[in-house]
Design goal:
mainly alpha
Amino acid sequence: MKSHFLITLFTFTVFMVHAQSAKEFTQKGRELIDKRDYMEAILNLNKAIEVDSKYSVAYFLRGNLKEKFEDLHGAMKDYNTAIETNVKYTEAFFARGNVKMRLQDYYGAIADFSSAIAINENYVEAYFNRGKAKQLLMAYEDAINDVTKIIQINPKSIDAYYMRGILRIDFGDLKNGCLDLSKAGELGDLKAYEIIKEKCNTKTTGN
């Protein structure tokens, strides 16, 4: 009985040391990323994964670095593992969606951004990028709905007003699109006025 207890205690202690070590290697990797010492950061993140193959943060950060150096498929693989080891990893869904955007997999990107939003319904960046993906698929009405949600969350989002303005104009709603661009300009986006000059000062019929 005593022997069984000691074995259990030893196993638990080893597990805790390994988990802590993985965390320490990952934290060191994060600090090295901040210092732009990317090769050493990768080595530390690799070590974290060696110590604990299910430490999702290490995979996520390593995926960030791979993406930075244009290894998109390597980044995708790390984001996949981060999500497999933590199914609620909002940032990993978002990051994987961004990789899919770069690979022009817009439907896949939308699915990942939607997963991020399902976990965090106020994830502004996920709404914004999902709106961009829908824009590229010419699903303008759905894209407008995503950007409108951002404005509901943050009524002073300059980028959201600007993007919704462009989307509404592309969708054929010139008046409201121009009003959105005007709001973006009012909030400080001077390039909105260039679009207003180009798109909004032509003679139209109706209201």
